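step 3/5: co-fold with copper (II) ion
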Amino acid sequence: MLDRRQAMRLAALGGIAPLAHANPLNCPFPDNDDDQPLVRLTPFIQPLPFPPPPTQVAPFRPSALCEQHLTEMGSVASKAQFCEIVEEEALVSLHPELPQTPVWRYRDTSVPEDSPILAGPTFVVRMGNPQVVRFLNRLPSDHIGFGVPHLTTHFHGGHMAPVFDGFPENVPGVPHVVREPGEDFDYLWAQQDVGFSTGNPDPDERPSTQWYHDHLLDFTGPNVMRGLAGFYLIFDELDTGNEMTGLRLPSGPFDIPLVIQDKRIAPDGTMVYQPGDFDGFLGDQMLVNGAIDPFLEVKRRKYRFRVLNGSNARMYKLRITDENNRNPKPIHVIATDGGLLAQTYRNRRTIFLGMAERAEIIIDFSKFAPGTELYLTNFCSQDSGRGPDGDFEEVKEVDKDDARKIMKFVVTGGAVRDRSQIPKKLRPLRPVPKDAIDAAVHRHFEFERKGGAWAVNGEFIDIEHPSARPKKGKPEIWHFENGGGGWWHPIHVHIELGRMLSRNGARPGPLERDGNAKKDTFNLSGGDEVEVFFNFRDFTGPSVFHCHNIEHEDHFMMARFDIEDC
Ligand SMILES: [Cu+2]
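step 4/5: write tokens
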């Protein structure tokens, strides 16, 4: 007899009827060719959406599991904030010229059901303030179209008890975390400094721009494509969210998260997805914060943008350009997926983002005349799920005339007083000490194609058995190697940030290397090898690492690891 996973896989691959409704053009699916969009839309006629933060609700009695962990936190638990997020199907306009699109989304239960926002609520959290978040799966069990309505929410980049991190499947020996339609789950996202359990918390490793998204085994790709993703921003006494204090980074309305995603949209507004695409699915429309081709009016001052590549399989080589895709403007990079850098990487022209990676950038619009129009433009040459042309050292670009504008900035108004700053030094980060490197346990993981699917060390994911058992609080060096063939694999490790020690035997660049950056996703082009230091602190339990080309992840390029007590 088929188990749930097998039955769902069979259904999603077309074994049962509802999938036919997912294809608005009727079979066969159109080619996954992003040069030929299914529908042509007028760009830059809708404003950028701002998904609001969730509303705090009165404390409720959390699940026994959540309550147990809160109790273990001691007095910190009294600072817990509570909110409720429903996971639902909704009709949302992705573009004014399109009929509404049936999406799956996270919605704060305090927000009306007819909210036009696709992207999940943007959490804005102070380090040390635990969040108790009740997720209510209210997706229809008899839904039409792709996706599987069994949900588990991954806090991407978080340091927390693995049971609250979105383990991908309900398996023996692990608490029941995957919820079916009608079921709820209470997450405790505690935001404690790494090392807190030893009495030596390390504020160097505080994160900044994190995100949450669905993580169901084998079906993360369709579920994220349908819309299940949101931002989670973390502040503290250094990065205060107030441009008059701390680092004085652009703040408030001038601190804007931008999640970039590509989706394939049919003329009737429905999303098209190919569940059987093992290579990586590319869309033909570009969305920012859930809107296709938006614009943003900006004042003549500095802005902080938190750019997240939320795509399933597309990478981005981004510049701020004029309307001819030329004259790139200065970009000051202040953070990556692991939080603020030690030092600002100033006056860049380009940022490159693999899937799930983040770059926080400061753009100064003060020098541009009112009415100036600028664009966030993608120059990455990529026409399949294989990844960009070229390699990590030299990602090939399309011709300037073919570069794809993703959103428009319109400079407005007169001169304004701007008290924000672009500091040279950001968050201190001491490199991993030599004695820890010398003492580390080494593990090797090779990511490669196997039988048309994707393997780690020759094995497909076996979610019931760990491939590694690192000891809590002990140093580890993980060697991630891309088996080649020209395929790219951005490798994401849950629970702890990593420190990249080397890339292809050399010192990594400033946006990756230990001492300046922390990372949770390590992008490997064909044949690349990186060494990453980890120390899994504070928590034990089962978790995973995987490729964040989500179609590779869904087609088995994942491994379970169990953090164990010494
Ligand atoms: Cu991959």
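step 5/5: annotate
Residues 454, 489, 547, 549, 552, 557 surround copper (II) ion (CB under 6 Å).
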